[in-house]
Amino acid sequence: MNALSDFPITQKWPAQHPDRIQLYSLPTPNGVKVSIMLEETGLPYEAHKVDFGSNDQLTPEFLSLSPNNKIPAILDPNGPDGRPLPLFESGAILVYLAAKSGQFMPQDVAARYETLQWVMFQMGGIGPMFGQLGFFHKFAGKDYEDKRPRDRYVAESKRLLGVLDKHLQGRDWIMGGEYTIADIATFPWIRNLIGFYGAGELVEFDRFANVRRVLDAFVARPAVERGLAIPG
Ligand SMILES: N[C@@H](CCC(=O)N[C@@H](CS)C(=O)NCC(=O)O)C(=O)O
């Protein structure tokens, strides 16, 4: 497929600017990773809201781009070899946008793998564990009588926060002096845990002073502030 109009998703969410990266998202902790990255890089893009209230994520048009029915997803009209590139999974999208923009990924080869290591730590650990904690603490799972599942995710979330806190000792960002996609992947989830999920006390967030310090620096970035509200 060589034109954006060949992609069924553009029938439900028409592109006003077909030369720009098309973002299909919502301001959730996974969604804002990509809107923050786009704001940080300055790459031109157009945001489309995928409304969970209307089950937009289950429509054939959305599934044609993101078969796992999850946001975020993108469609880049100018992908590799000048052809459109559809992509889902926030980690893969961050890696792609870092390569495309030449930003937020270290030049040094060893440091690149280290950055990817921390992106994977977020994708495989922090995201899924905090997400389950949210279910058992804030959503339907909070009414379950058996508190063992909740306690398991609380314990695992605390353990992960401890790993991150220890790593951040003496560092400005996850990769030291350099702000990278590892930070962009991780800190929306930390913010969500103590904000929207209201789980700060539950995980004893006060114990993790380094995580708190870097979270504060993250949310103070103007591009982060903008990205957190996209799509509006
Ligand atoms: N591993 C995926 C997870 C994405 C994900 O869980 N997205 C949620 C919102 S944060 C979603 O789209 N949920 C809709 C649904 O499950 O129907 C990623 O990082 O992109």
TrEMBL record:
Alphabetical list of Gene3D superfamilies matching this protein: 1.20.1050.10, Glutaredoxin
Keyword Transferase found: yes
SUPFAM superfamilies: GST C-terminal domain-like, Thioredoxin-like
Keywords: Transferase
Molecular-function GO term, any one: glutathione transferase activity
Record domain GST C-terminal: where: 108-232
Signal sequence, renumbered to the chain: none
EC number of the protein: 2.5.1.18
Organism domain of life: Bacteria
Pfam families the UniProt entry points to: GST_C (PF00043), GST_N (PF02798)
Enzymatic class: transferase
CDD domains xref list: GST_C_Ure2p_like, GST_N_Ure2p_like
Domain GST N-terminal: start-end pairs: 18-105
Family per record: Belongs to the GST superfamily.
Protein name as catalogued: Glutathione S-transferase
